[in-house]
Task: structure prediction
Amino acid sequence: MNALTTLVQSLGIAYASGISPYATVALAGIADRMGWIDALPGALGAVSHPAVIVVASLLTVVEFLATLIPGVASAWETIHTAIRPPAAAALAVLTAWHGDPALITAAALLGGTLGFATHSTKLGLRYTIDTSPEPITNGAANVAELSVIAAIAYAVWNHPYITLTIALLVLVLLMLLVRSIWRMAKRALRGRRSAETPSPG
Result:
């Protein structure tokens, strides 16, 4: 496997980790252990250890349940600003571990950056979704996120370039969506303040 392919794969796993490192580790580990994919590259094979899969799966369940509760979901996402980008960088490094030091360094830097980008985009969407007082919308978002992670955890090892390209296009579209939503929210807030401000005289 050449260095560029390894780097692309490390970025794919970092992308997924920016959404949820727990689900990424659990699903990649299960896929490797079940033989659905070829052996994971670098030192990433550690995620297929039964103990790692169990811990990651339990944390995935906790995250799924926590993000069903309005208010708690936003707090959970905010706290994970300090967790997901470093986890994304770490998983990228594990993927490129047996490569050239320059490759490992690039994987860490780019992986952490991409993990932060996916997390920030998710954070903006979750803040918007969390304004809904019912858990159905949050549950649908959780299922959609797990589906994306599962697709990446499976496909990035067999079709790394296609997988990462599609994932990046989706990320750009979601960024634009978040930007549009927040712009509309600001306009609505300004309109409400204008309506509530009494006219002089």
About this structure: The chain has one domain: 3-192.
